[in-house]
Write a structure and sequence with these properties.
Blueprint (H helix, E strand, L loop, with lengths): L1 H10 L3 H16 L4 H4 L11 H13 L7 E6 L9 H17 L4 E6 H4 L11 E8 L4 H10 L11 E5 L1 H35 L2 H26 L7 H30 L4 H28 L7 H32 L22 H11 L1 H16 L7 E2 L11 H12 L8 E6 L3 H11 L10 E2 L7 E6 L7 H9 L8 E6 H35 L3 H25 L5 H4 L6 E2 H31 L4 H31 L4 H33 L8 H9 L22 H9 L10 H11 L6 H4 L4 H13 L7
Parallel strand pairs: 5-10
Antiparallel strand pairs: 1-3, 1-4, 2-3, 6-8, 6-9, 7-8
Amino acid sequence: MFEKWGYFSYRHRRLVPLIVIAAILAVYAIFGTQLGNRMSQEGWDDPGSSSTAAAHIEQDVFGRDNSGDVILLFESPDGRSLNDPVTFGAIASHLESLKTEHPDEIAHVTSYFDTRNAQLINEEGTRAFAAIGLRGDGEQTLKDFRAIEDSLVAEDLPVETRVAGATAVADSLDDGMAGDIVRAEVIALPVVAVLLLFVFGSAVAALMPLIVGILSIAGSLGVLSILAGLTQVNVFAQSVVTLLGLGLAIDYGLFMVSRFREELDKGTSVPEAVGTTTATAGKTVVFSAAMVAVALSGLLVFPQAFLKSVAYGAISAVGLAALLSVTVLPALFGMLGHNIDKWTVRRTKRTARRLEDTVWFRVPGWAMKHAKLVTIGVAGLLIALTLPLAGVKFGGINETYLPPSNDVRVAQDDFNDTFPAFRTEPVKLVVTDATEQQLVDVFVQLRDIDGLSSQFTPDHGTVDGTTVLSAGIEDRDLNSSVVDQLRALDVPEGVNVYIGGTPAMEIESIEALMEKLPWMALYIVVATFILMALVFGSLILPAKAIIMTVLGLGATLGILTAMFVGGVGADLFHFTPGPLMSPVLVLIVAIVYGLSTDYEVFLVSRMVEARDRGRSTDDAIRYGTAQTGSIITAAALIMIVVAGAFGFSEIVMMKYIAFGMIFALAIDATIIRMMLVPAVMHLLREDNWWAPGFIKRAYEKMGHSEQLPPVPAPAPTPGTPEPEADVEKQDDEPLEGELLIDEAVVVDHDEAARGGRTTAEDEELIPFAELMARLEADRSGPRKLGR
């Protein structure tokens, strides 16, 4: 199927890119440019939780609680009291003018300067605050804040004025995410272009993956905007879509270009090279994208709209990357042909390089020779790196996700320290259907709650039998304890009590995630196992891949916990360690799992291809690793560069994802792919390829095992002993494809066929296909070649 599509793209090589590119640009122009106005800051909570019900009841009865939208913190710079008549009057006049100038945005202003409430000023009289409530609801709240933002601080005031509050924090987080997108475009893309130029040595070849990456991002942002018009899409989704979409699209383009050039180097015609590239690399790209999409679709199991919106956007980005790789790229290959190497800036030696001379041949060979030691050592190291995960702590999104030096973050920290009773994260109790006496019974029990910075007090008077009580919590670490105590209240019969507020929302969000996490894990493991079984034609290889992915994932999460909870590198990378947002942890699990299986498919597919062409297990391992090692390393490096751009993010959650991808890719592309995979497959020997008949038949029907010309086994480097399995096999039966012919003969012929040599010696060489035919004839006779 893929080969036919490759030839179709070649025949219509001018029409296919035109249609696809025009469609993507149209989607982006019509919808993508509207994305910024359609995204939401919400979606972190569990819609079916008690805290969500409490928020809805409070809003329906009393309206939205906007008391902590914006906080203006006033501080005397010289230690003078804010009660000084001149200072007091200036601040009061400024607050009054704010209400007058912005009646459509500001609902109310509560401050010491109009109430003289002693709780709104510190004991020294040097620091006071004003709480501004905004009229807007939902996304309109942030728009209202931006409308008044420039007016909040008056330069002529005799005091220092700083801005804090929940909406100000949300705005700073939003600005930080917007900066991530710009950083990816300004820093990551140029660096990736230079890397591709170095890898390919040709400007034209390097341009191909970039085309896929840019088109993929444009299309996915358009799709995300369409989705945002139908459902809630969190603003955070745009950063994740850009990160994943750009990195994977360029990786897929890299694999396609590499295979196309490899086919041209063999002397095949351009149409055949396009068809073979699409049938091999193109098929692998599609199945790899399916693995990533399946892992990301596991996020749809969770109730939080944030995770669902990220899943929608990321899946669309990955799907578009794969679609572009098997449509636009084959057509461009057909138009370019050998011009793929045009505008060469660095001459590569890919046609003269022997696979056995590369590090990607030598390292796996060493790992296979010491298979048991490598397996135990690498697995032990990965498990050891997982251990810090035991200390993971969960929390919610707040000002600590901003850099320690951020102005809003500093102001919010100072406000929390000075006025702990007015923190913007109170815990709430919404009581309905209670008589006056029953309400008193609840009040009495609330006095015994430990961990509060202030006792529960009514936010409003009782309306229609509904009362809202709120209290501050001394420390975020006590959120769980306070919520548990509230759940243990002896509620009078007939009375309904809902625990609300940010602390309750965070706890219930964590509980919902932990409840659904096993189902997500089961789903993605089963789904990827089935897909890999169809790709590999084996049940052992998918099981091995999943086990190794879990080991790498555990190590990555352990390192992230040591950093972002334990504080390792906090000063160096400019963030505040603390509890992690549980939805972000789930997100990184899906991303890392998807990326790991992605690279596993690229590596093992070449091994399976070699096996289908008649190679032994160890030869297939050597061939597959040596052929894909440099490409997988380059792909991982490119993805690390893209993730690294987001590692400079001001937002802790984005740093967490970026560093998670960097660690996962570094571990995966080095000790797992280069050492653990070859070692374990060597130990499994022929069991690697086992599958029941129906799996083999499905594998063959999908065109994976088409008759392909034999692949020469990479010869061992002179002086390097053969792996144990080869020696053991010689004692029982001849090695599959073993040759008693100088390896230089085969290599020299390849050189001559490619135009690399033109000596008389080359003209006497036997063509490789004829050589293999003679070997097969010898095998059917009484004497085995090599014995």
